[in-house]
Amino acid sequence: MFRALIIFIVLGVINCAKYPSDLQKCKYGDMVCAIRVANEIMAKSAYGLPELGLPSTNPLVINRIGLNQEGDRPVVLNIEMKDCKMSGLPTTNFTTIQGFSDNIDKAKILLKYRQDYIQLFGPYKAKGKILVLPMNGDGEANITFTGVDSSIKMLTKKIVKNGKNYMQIDKLRLNFDVKRASLHFSNLFNGNAQLGDALNNFMNENWMDILNDLKPAMADSLGAVYKSLLNNMFSNIPYDEFFEK
Ligand SMILES: *[C@@H]1O[C@H](CO)[C@@H](O)[C@H](O)[C@H]1NC(C)=O
Ligand SMILES: *[C@@H]1O[C@H](CO)[C@@H](O)[C@H](O)[C@H]1NC(C)=O
């Protein structure tokens, strides 16, 4: 099996990066406090938090995102979405945040969270096969996951700039489960509505099997989105400014 992903988010240039004064600072290792603050950041990110280098996330616009899955598998898909709107991030509810200590060189961080929903919407191009059915199309895609439970494991690296320490997320692995996935692709098969409806119905009836096959590639794509957001935040503010001294 071969899989690859492409992802590209344009994040605004920050010229006023500073830990927001109306946001609480937590002590290292205080998980209850970290969860409260992280949930507040996610809720506020709907309107953007330029001080933290976070763009508006309701929706977050992703310039390119895709999956590229090849090989001898039941579901083989190449999907690319441009100017994809990802919504649902402000519903993030963290339940575990571990590993933010005063040591950031090769620190292992664990995050667990639930999102009410995550929706990817926008123009797509796709080519591949779903079980015995070929799939190709060029239109609008709507991939919606509801009841999303995820965990993220990260490995960090310490970056020193002008004598200050910054955290960089070096590796990130995401796993997720969903209560339900719904998929809709318009203009499949050059607009043949009968074939398109049939494939959309088939995908929604068999979403669990299809998602199982696509999950590793999807998890990589979603993980790349979060890595990019976190690195934008941590590369602009020295690490110790996030915490109470
Ligand atoms: C977040 O999840 C916890 C545990 O499931 C729950 O008690 C809490 O009400 C949730 N908060 C929000 C804002 O949904
Ligand atoms: C995408 O699909 C979901 C679930 O079917 C639906 O609730 C939502 O309105 C759709 N979004 C758009 C932009 O069409």
How confident overall, as mean pLDDT? 91
What binds here, in terms of ligands, is:
2-acetamido-2-deoxy-beta-D-glucopyranose
Beta content comes to 35-45%
Which segments are poorly predicted (pLDDT under 50) over 5 or more consecutive residues? none
Number of helices: 3
Radius of gyration: 19 Å
Shape: elongated
Structural class of the secondary structure composition? alpha+beta
Count of DSSP strands: 8
Q: Can you write the helix and strand succession as a string?
A: EEHEEEEEEHH
In which range does the helix fraction lie? 10-25%
Descriptive report:
The protein is 22% helix and 44% strand. It has helices at 31-44, 193-205, 207-234, and strands spanning 2-4, 7-8, 60-70, 75-87, 93-98, 108-130, 133-161, 164-185. Strands 1, 2, 3, 4, 5, 6, 7 and 8 form an 8-stranded antiparallel β-sheet that branches. The N and C termini lie far apart (48 Å). Bound molecules: 2-acetamido-2-deoxy-beta-D-glucopyranose (2 copies). Residues 93, 95 line the site of one 2-acetamido-2-deoxy-beta-D-glucopyranose.
Briefly summarize what is shown.
This protein has 245 residues and is α+β, with helices and mostly antiparallel strands. It contains three helices and eight strands. The model has no long low-confidence stretch (mean pLDDT 91).
Helices and strands, with pairings:
Layout: E1 2-4, E2 7-8, H1 31-44, E3 60-70, E4 75-87, E5 93-98, E6 108-130, E7 133-161, E8 164-185, H2 193-205, H3 207-234
Antiparallel strand pairs: 1-3, 2-3, 3-4, 4-6, 5-6, 6-7, 7-8
The structure holds 2-acetamido-2-deoxy-beta-D-glucopyranose (2 copies).
